[in-house]
Amino acid sequence: MNLNRRKFIKRLIAAVVSIEAFFLIKNGISTKTPLTEEEKLISVGNAELFMNNKTYPFVTNHFYLRRFKDGGFMAFSVKCTHLGCVVNINSNTGGFNCPCHASQFNEFGDVISSPATRPLDTYPIIVKNNELWVDITKATTRTTFDKSQLTYI
Amino acid sequence: MTHKGPQNRVRSSIENFILHLHPMRIDKRAIKFTRTFGLGGISALLFVILFISGIILRFSYIPTVEHAYESIVELQNHSIFGQFIRNIHHLSGMLLVVVSFLHLIRVYYTQSIFQRRAKNWIYGLILLFLVLFSSFTGYLLPWDQLSFWAVTVITRVIEYFPFIGVHIAQYIRSGDVINGNTLLNFYNLHTGVIPLVFVVLMSIHFWLVRNAGGVALPKNEHKKRVNVLPNLVVKEMMVASIVIAIIFIVSVFYNAPLLDEANPLKSPNPTKAPWYFLGAQELLLHVHPIFSAVIIPIGIGVFFIYLPYFNYKDLNIGVWFNSEKGKSLVIQSALLSVAFTFILIYLFEHFLHFEIWLSTYPSWISTGVFPFLLYVLPVSAYLTLIYKKGKSSNTEVIMSLTTILVSSYITMLMISLLLRGKGMLLVF
């Protein structure tokens, strides 16, 4: 490669400008306000308050909390994994139905009727002296349900 | 009848300006209405209408979650002609999508995208993409249930793209869900960045048309040239007046939709993407996202970009459908494709349940590879048949393939738009 002084300086300037532009655009457009400690962990109350085999909606915080027959807890994201609509609780089966494109999920969040292709995302649950907290910072994607995803007191 | 035009007087500044856009004299066949249907010109006119009505709307719109919806209700109910201006903007936006698409179809089927015009085809594709992008960013601004969930659905489609999809979608939305930052970003793109890019690209697009010698015409020994002033300009004025009149009249009677204010906690049933993306959404209902959101869109995109550069035989530039045979093949392919797509979707809906029959396979095989092959194999068989048995040239075969793809998309769009009711089930 034939690189003389002028070419080198031109390319250096181009590189510096592109890097600067990248950061300007990145931080300028995507101004995500970071969540405070209090917002990250949602307190849902004492574990004893929740009945077995029942789903509790916390839709404003974007999750459903379900307690299973054996007392285990799971927090499901309300977003349908197909196209991001808010799923509703199916009170007959304990599962979830999507109103937009008719996807259906069972009580463990697994798909029982397409077009959704993967189970509902979950949020980690943290137990502190019998109090339940749900960490809504990152949803966990999974391929299928297994026992290890349940949280016990 | 052709006019001689002003020859013995000094031209006005408007006439001089027009002669920067158009040449002095032009082939008579180029100004026949049915050669171009004025589609490119109408697109440019619609852009101007959108620009002006958009600027007026900008005075009363507030791009925040708290006030966006309110400001539009306020505009409609309490500003003089507020609703009318919004209707004009809405209608012109929809028309621009339709007209620029028809412009692409016209240019393609009159074989006007090859050689010197190949570069302009690429610019045209970028402009069409920009039209869709500006329409899509504008879709969110009213902040009602329609716009909120349509944009939710589309940004979710982007997430299906492997590895980088989730990051791109999060970047566009500035978060996991549509929020105030998304609205601000879309507002800036829609009213600032995109129009600016439009002006630049449109100038290049126009200049490249001139550069290639204007509208593509079949070869002819005896060219008859006429003055652009007034022969072409009069026709342009006439078409522009008719288009403006239609937009104004329809805007009086047809109101742009505005549903309830956006509620991020309640999805309407059914939730549909903006109408021009409905074909893609329909595809996503039937085929695994790895195919419907990644392989098929990229494949079709590359195919369209590469269209002018295939090694064609017997090109007849400027001739509709390349030849009489090409014309009958295009009509045949379009009809077959519409029927085939419709039947296939009906079968997928009611009879073909690959995800149940092949539940032991991973879902990308059972709901991906199999439905994909079910479409690709018959289409390939048909194309081979017309190539081998019908003795068609590769030009005609590629034209048939393009026709099949475009017709399939339009069929899916129509099915999704007209035949999908609650829970996205097929209703007749």
Automatic annotation (TrEMBL), chain A:
Keywords annotated in UniProt: 2Fe-2S, Disulfide bond, Iron, Iron-sulfur, Metal-binding
Chain ranges passing through the membrane: none
MF GO annotations: 2 iron, 2 sulfur cluster binding; metal ion binding
Pfam families: Rieske
Name of this protein: Rieske (2Fe-2S) protein
One annotated Gene Ontology cellular component of this protein: membrane
Residue ranges occupied by any Rieske domain in the UniProt entry: 41-134
Cross-referenced PANTHER family: CYTOCHROME B-C1 COMPLEX SUBUNIT RIESKE, MITOCHONDRIAL
Domain of life the protein comes from: Bacteria
Gene3D superfamilies registered for this protein in UniProt: Rieske [2Fe-2S] iron-sulphur domain
Cofactor(s) required, per the database record: [2Fe-2S] cluster
Automatic annotation (TrEMBL), chain B:
Name of the molecule in the record: Cytochrome b N-terminal domain-containing protein
Keyword Transmembrane helix applies: yes
KW Transmembrane helix (keyword) present: yes
Species per Swiss-Prot/TrEMBL record: Plebeiibacterium sediminum
Gene Ontology terms describing biological process: respiratory electron transport chain
Keywords: Membrane, Transmembrane, Transmembrane helix
Transmembrane spans: 37-61, 88-109, 121-141, 193-217, 238-256, 290-309, 329-348, 368-385, 397-419
Coiled coil: none
Any one of the GO CC terms: membrane
A Pfam family of this chain: Cytochrome_B
Domain of life: Bacteria
An example molecular function term from Gene Ontology annotations: electron transfer activity
All residue ranges annotated as the Cytochrome b/b6 N-terminal region profile domain in the record: 1-218
InterPro entries the record matches: Cyt_b/b6_N, Cytb/b6-like_sf, Di-haem_cyt_TM
